[in-house]
Automatic annotation (TrEMBL):
<dbReference type="Pfam" id="PF09273">
    <property type="entry name" value="Rubis-subs-bind"/>
</dbReference>
<dbReference type="InterPro" id="IPR001214">
    <property type="entry name" value="SET_dom"/>
</dbReference>
<dbReference type="InterPro" id="IPR044428">
    <property type="entry name" value="SETD3_SET"/>
</dbReference>
<keyword id="KW-0963">Cytoplasm</keyword>
<dbReference type="GO" id="GO:0018064">
    <property type="term" value="F:protein-L-histidine N-tele-methyltransferase activity"/>
</dbReference>
<dbReference type="Pfam" id="PF00856">
    <property type="entry name" value="SET"/>
</dbReference>
<keyword id="KW-0489">Methyltransferase</keyword>
<dbReference type="InterPro" id="IPR025785">
    <property type="entry name" value="SETD3"/>
</dbReference>
<dbReference type="GO" id="GO:0032259">
    <property type="term" value="P:methylation"/>
</dbReference>
<feature type="domain" description="SET">
    <location>
        <begin position="94"/>
        <end position="314"/>
    </location>
</feature>
<dbReference type="InterPro" id="IPR015353">
    <property type="entry name" value="Rubisco_LSMT_subst-bd"/>
</dbReference>
<dbReference type="InterPro" id="IPR050600">
    <property type="entry name" value="SETD3_SETD6_MTase"/>
</dbReference>
<dbReference type="GO" id="GO:0003779">
    <property type="term" value="F:actin binding"/>
</dbReference>
<protein>
    <recommendedName>
        <fullName>protein-histidine N-methyltransferase</fullName>
        <ecNumber>2.1.1.85</ecNumber>
    </recommendedName>
</protein>
<keyword id="KW-0808">Transferase</keyword>
<comment type="similarity">
    <text>Belongs to the class V-like SAM-binding methyltransferase superfamily. SETD3 actin-histidine methyltransferase family.</text>
</comment>
<dbReference type="InterPro" id="IPR046341">
    <property type="entry name" value="SET_dom_sf"/>
</dbReference>
Length: 611
């Protein structure tokens, strides 16, 4: 086992640089804070801003070279201490050990046969690093007076981690020593590796993540040096950008939500030992047992002795895995590409379309997703596209016609088209939109595959290329699926096939044969919580398991809600729009609506470190 003493050294450098005066450093920090706090750049200028911010950060890093506190020896030297501490603290340690799994990194290896659903791992609260433990630590006085810390649990955990790392008597030192010294999150990418992500869905979040992290670092550097409540923090003598980048990445890749001790609300936590588990497809098998006050994990499947034990991190896309976890998951069953779609407010039929969508619980402007599996669109997106492509007469029928309320139930069900012409329109749009999005990439799928064959690619470059190739494959599949559906419904129209009819008594039993739309859209909470602001993100609510209150858990990334329009904004003028229908010019009924749909591949808000 390696030495446990701390040394002031920097892995990436050889020796410290010349002493920098506090005034010189503070001037650089102020310049960085000002640059990161300026107005958002105009469209297309985000990379330019990133390069400027990165240049300032590199100046600061160069002057801080050799100052960061790290531990001697390799990470694995401290695993025995981690296991001993866990056992002494009341955690379970008899069914597994920490092992090296090559390209997957370190993980948990079964030391005996473990049955599926067997409780094999539990971690008591006293081992966890939480926002509450930060409040009760040396960071508490500053936390009580700083609004940023109070509002951002992930930032609080990052500073908590740094303060405890610098404390020789910290009870969490066995855990902190076992953490990686560096990560593969985009915060660690070189500039040319970040540029490989240009054109991908992830790039805006990557650039925002770097900017926000730099802004936070500059803010807290100044705060630590000047605020009276920070006078006793160990960070006052040593707080480098590399320190903060490490702490942010540690939290970003490991944080989770657990209940507070009284179970009244949730809080963010780092969960030692459990966070050693690697990800695979499956279901959430970890919860929080309030009665025994501990995190519990049951086996996802049967594991033989010496096999790696996996958990499921949640239904994340590969873009989310790359940004928040630092890896690309090749067989991701939940991979998807997000697109933003909206009905133009300048469209003549906007109020009618918005009202039909509102009755189905869908905003008129929304973030949707194209999925890697079949069907490529969710029930919610199907409903949106059907409404968007409706003619004036079809909208009128769904608002005022016979059984209009009941018809809303069928919008997300693929078995009950509005009309053959409507289906042709929506699948034509999907085919065309996916094909257009493919043209925004700087390389083709074939070129990406060729690049991945190069043996000298860096890990980060490989991950970036894998991500953009995966996005293209989803778009290619969506375009092909749109074409196939379009041809299918054109044939139905040509054959004058009768539209499938539903009986009013069958409304509650409507089931889409597609895997993601088992119930009428307004009777269920959609699985894709990203799709539609009106559908709230599911909290980690308690449920009963063996008579004990348990909180379901997965590896969390801080997700900021996407700002969308409310239903009330469009309801106020729908009546006047309906009244004017009868007097509208009949020649307008055949006008095409497709051109009014604005679409882009985007995530509106950065998911990490957003202030």
């Amino acid at each position: 086992m390696g030495k446990k003493s701390r040394v002031k050294t920097q892995k990436s450098g050889s020796g410290a640089s010349a002493v920098v005066s506090p005034k010189e450093m503070m001037n650089l920090i102020s310049e960085l804070l000002q640059k990161c706090s300026s107005a958002a750049p105009s469209a297309g200028k985000e990379l330019e801003e990133y390069i400027q911010i990165r240049g300032l950060v590199e100046k600061i890093r160069k002057k801080q070279k050799g100052v960061s506190i790290v531990f001697e020896g390799s990470r694995e030297d401290y695993f025995p201490e981690l296991m001993s501490w866990a056992q002494e603290s009341g955690a379970s340690c008899d069914g597994f050990r920490v092992a090296d799994f090559g390209t997957e990194g370190f993980g948990l290896q079964a030391t005996r046969d473990i049955k599926a659903e067997e409780l094999f791992l539990w971690i008591p609260r006293k081992m966890l690093m939480t926002v509450e433990s930060a409040q009760n630590s040396i960071l508490g006085p500053l936390y009580s007076q700083d609004r940023i810390l109070q509002a951002m649990g992930n930032v609080t955990l990052a500073l908590h981690l740094l303060c405890e790392r610098a404390n020789p008597a910290s009870p969490w030192l066995p855990y902190i020593r076992s953490l990686p010294q560096e990560y593969d999150t985009p915060l660690y990418y070189q500039q040319d590796e970040v540029q490989l992500l240009l054109g991908t869905q992830a790039v805006q979040d990557v650039l925002s993540q770097y900017k926000n992290t730099a802004r936070q670092y500059a803010y807290f550097y100044k705060l630590v040096q000047t605020h009276p409540a920070a006078s006793k923090l160990p960070l006052k003598d040593s707080f480098t950008f590399d320190d903060y980048r490490w702490a942010v990445s540690s939290v970003m890749t490991r944080q989770n939500q657990i209940p507070t001790e009284d179970g009244s609300r949730v809080t963010l936590a780092l969960i030692p030992l459990w966070d050693m588990c690697n990800h695979t497809n499956g279901l959430i098998t970890t919860g929080y047992n309030l009665e025994d006050d501990r995190c519990e994990c049951v086996a996802l499947q049967d594991y033989k002795e010496n096999e790696q034990i996996y958990i499921f991190y949640g239904t994340r896309s590969n873009a989310e895995f790359v940004i928040h976890n630092g890896f690309f998951f090749q067989d991701n069953a939940h991979d998807r590409v997000k697109i933003k779609l909206g009905v133009s407010k300048s469209e003549r039929l906007y109020a009618m379309k918005a009202e039909v969508l509102a009755r189905a619980g869908i905003p008129a402007s929304c973030i949707f997703a194209l999925h890697c599996n079949e069907p490529p669109i969710s029930a919610q997106l199907l409903a949106f596209l059907r409404v968007f492509c409706m003619t004036e007469e079809e909208l009128k029928d769904y608002l005022l016609g016979d059984r209009a309320i009941n018809k809303i139930f069928t919008l997300g069900n693929s078995e009950y088209p509005v009309s053959w012409d409507n289906e042709i329109k929506l699948w034509t749009f999907l085919e065309t939109r996916a094909a257009l999005l493919l043209k925004t990439y700087r390389t083709t799928s074939e070129e990406d595959r060729s690049m991945l064959e190069k043996p000298d690619l860096s890990l980060h470059s490989r991950v970036a290329i894998q991500l953009r190739l995966a996005e293209k494959q989803i778009l290619e599949k969506a375009s092909a699926s749109g074409r196939a559906k379009r041809l299918h419904f054109e044939k139905k129209l040509e054959e004058d096939a009768p539209l499938p009819q539903y009986e009013e008594s069958d409304i509650a039993l409507l089931e889409n044969t597609d895997a993601d739309a088992k119930l009428p859209i307004i009777l269920r909470k959609l699985e894709e919580v990203e799709e539609g602001q009106e559908i709230p993100e599911e909290e980690h609510s308690p449920f009963l398991n063996g008579g004990k209150a348990v909180y379901g858990m997965d590896m969390q990334a801080n997700v900021d809600p996407v700002q969308e329009e409310t239903q009330e904004k469009v309801s106020k003028d729908v009546n006047s729009a309906l009244d004017s229908i009868e007097g509208s010019n009949a020649t307008q009924k055949g006008q095409r609506e497709e051109a009014n749909l604005s679409a882009s591949r985007t995530e509106e808000n950065p998911k990490e470190n957003s202030e």
